[in-house]
Amino acid sequence: MRNRIVVSIQAIGHRTIDSIWRLGVASRFFVWVLLKSTTSFLRFGLVVREIYFVGVLSLIIILVSGLFVGMVLGLQGYETLQKYGSESAVGTLVALSLVRELGPVMAALLFASRAGSAITAEIGLMKATNQLAAMGMMAVDPIARVVAPRFWAGVISMPFLAAMFSVMGVFGGYLVTVVFIGVDNGSFWSQMQNAVDFRYDIVNGVIKSCFFGVAVTAIAVFEGFDAPPTAEGVSGATTRTVVTSSLVILGLDFVLTSFMFRGVS
Amino acid sequence: MSRTVMDFWVGLFVMAGIGALLILGLKVGNLTSYNAGEVYNLTGNFENIGGLKIRAPVKSAGVVVGRVLDIQYSLETHDAIVTMGVSSSYQFPKDTFASILTSGLLGEQYIGLSPGGDAVMLADGDKIMKTNSAMVLEEMIGRFLFDKASEN
Amino acid sequence: MTDNLIEIKNLAFSYGTRPILNNVNMAMSRGKVIAVMGGSGSGKTTLLRLIGGEIKPSGGHVKVADQIVHHLSRDELFKLRRKMGMLFQFGALFTDISVFDNVAFQIREHTTLPESMVRDLVLMKLQAVGLRGAHHLMPAELSGGMARRVALARSIALDPMLVMYDEPFTGLDPISLSVIGNLIRRLTDALGMISIVVTHDVQESLKIVDYVYFLADGVIAAQGTPQEVKNSVAPFVHQFVHGEEDGPVPFHYPAQSYQKDLALENFVA
Question: Which domain holds residue C143?
Fold first, then answer.
């Protein structure tokens, strides 16, 4: 009995030490990526190529999801607001929820599962098939040549994707409430514009999405680079990318929100 | 995929992203009415500000002329000091009346400025002397009941 | 001795407390194809990684072109690696770019040659491995043997002085196998480089190499020219060359006695 208690305490300790150690490895890797980013900016073509893969190819899912999320928000918002006779405030509701929270968060979650997993799988497979080692033997640093451009492409793409998600969402809300239900067009936009502040709402939303972009791509490239060079290793790393980055996005969102919107309505 | 095709799509992507940010700023947000040039500060003491918040609009004749910048509690007069940033393109006479009003029954509260007839205009840092506090529902009901009682 | 491009002295390496290589001595000179043979897990690949400077030895040194590899700074090491090529098992081609771009990769990364010159160089290297016509294909469209020939063309893109081959014959049909073997021989002679071939394939490699080292348990168990090796009576070499199941390299992984494992030591039949 006593032995089992000791063993389970040991197991807790082992896991704790392991995860802290891994966090340390990840942070060191992150610093390396930043230090070796000069190539990415001197040869920006490398980053442009990756923006195509992580940004342009994520567009469809981002735009379509944004549209539907906005439509649902419009519908639900209208249902609730019309009980109080203030259905013209539905524009405010849709725009504020999207710009402050749903745009950055949903776009980042979709980005993690669409582009983050692809980055992890690609880097993991390059490692498993010795492509990274081959690059190293050709005197080309794989972190500078493979990892850093993908990282920066993700960081650059994320705010754009989040903004497009929000715009599509507002358009979806407009479609449902103004075009289909018949809320007044003028008050839809004017109430929205009165309530949405450029500095406090939009800029904060963009700042959030920048943080999410850094977090998701940093996790994705680390998991890929750190993946055991086997089929199970790569698939496990891909899953971990999606799970870890989703949790980090939501946690980070809470932290950022509490810093940004404290004290202002 | 050839390099030029990829460049084209990435170019489109970046343009669409910047376009989306612009739409957010101009169409969804209030970038057009925000930071319209220089502002000057006015203060006013209110007995009760009700639910007034920082960044609430300051309107005159229904037109947004500025925003509430700061709300402080005054220890000397035991009331609220509200600082407003008013766009320099709008000038108001010295005897302007500032009241805290509500847009609609349940809407947000804002400051309404009703200009007086004085020839001297308010300048930066000036204090609006004539203020009218926010309506508080309980006080209104109380006054209504009191009036009813005195009628009978 | 000084004309030896590569000199390995008392080289030792261990993972933690597990020794992989111990007291390995080798010397190689230009224009030679050298085979390093040994059973699986005998430290052959580790040897290549030590020469390439990927890992640091725990004792002794590797000297390439009069430079001790593990004393070099990162920049110096990368400079040295430009003169080295490595052919990985299964080729390790970059799967997202075409055959042409694969071969051109190193030239573009390390030189500022105009694109027309890059094109000529790449086509020359591809011609050398007989795949000039396949330059527009993607790696996924190549057979195993072709992929390895492309990888060979890629590793000699900058005319290295040393090319290492990590099991270049694995998983190839007999025709592709002798094509690769002959290519290694021909390119080594033509470029005057050193080829170090790590392999299990005794018959093919004995046809093309100049010298053979046998590694077993991290030490050089035997060495010699192909002729000496074929005629060797040393039990290890004999077992390896003729592919016998049991011998100095045991069939069984070290274990406690079979009887004990099955809890039969007290069993009296």
Answer: 4-261
B55/B85 same-domain check: yes
Tell me: pLDDT of C112 over 80: yes
Interface mutation vs chain B, best among A160, A171, A191, most B CBs within 10 Å: A160
Q: Do A164 and B106 touch (CB under 8 A)?
A: no
Domain around B61: 39-141
Is B17–A48 a contact, with Cβ atoms under 8 angstroms apart?
no
Interface of B with A in 88-147 (CB under 8 A): 104, 106-108
Is C268 among the domain residues? no
Pairs of CB atoms within 8 A across A/B: 100
What domain range includes position A115?
Answer: 36-260
pLDDT band at A176 (very low <50, low <70, confident <90, very high): very high
Residue A265 pLDDT class (50, 70, 90 cuts)? very low
Count up the domains in chain C and report the number. Answer: 1
| Least confident segment among A17-31, A192-206, C249-263 | C249-263
Label residue A216 by pLDDT band (50, 70, 90).
very high
* 8 Å CB contact between C84 and C191: no
| Res B35: pLDDT | 54
**Out of A99, A192, A200, whose CB is closest to B55?**
A200
- C269 within a domain of the structure (yes/no): no
Residues B56 and B3 in one domain: no
From the candidates B1, B28, B67, B70, which should be mutated to test the interface with A, based on the most A CB atoms within 10 A?
B28
A22 is written with which tokens?
């891994």
B48 with B123, same domain: the answer is yes
Residue A20 lies in a domain: no
A interface with B, Cβ–Cβ < 8 A, is 45, 48-49, 51-52, 55-56, 59, 84, 86, 95, 99, 157, 159-161, 163-164, 166-167, 170, 189, 192-202, 205-206, 263-265
Number of domains in chain A: 1
Is B6–A52 a contact, with Cβ atoms under 8 angstroms apart?
yes
User: DSSP label at B79?
Assistant: S
> Any idea what DSSP says for residue B93?
B
Chain C residue with CA closest to A137: the answer is C81
Residue A3 domain-assigned (yes or no): no
Q: Highest mean pLDDT range out of A240-244, C16-20, C174-178, C205-209? A: A240-244
Give the closest-approach CA distance of A39 to chain B in angstroms.
19
- A204 occurs within a structural domain: yes
Q: What is the domain count for chain B?
A: 2
With beta carbons under 8 A apart, name residues in chain A contacting C109: 138-140, 145
Q: Report yes or no on B150 lying in a domain.
A: no
Residue C266 located in a structural domain: no
What are the start-end ranges of the E strands in B11-77? 39-46, 57-60, 63-73
Give me the residues of chain B with pLDDT under 50, please. none
Say how many C-beta atoms besides its own lie within 10 A of residue C118's C-beta: 17
Give A77-92 pLDDT, tens digit per residue: 999 988 887 777 888 8
Q: Identify the closest residue of chain A to B10 by CA–CA distance.
A: A52
pLDDT over threshold 70, residue C267: no
Structure tokens at A168: 């599509």
B62 and B128 both lie in a single domain: yes
Query: Are A138 and C81 inside 8 Å of each other by CB?
Result: yes
CA atoms within 13 A on the CB side of C256: 7
The residue of chain B nearest to residue A165, with distances taken between CA atoms, is B20
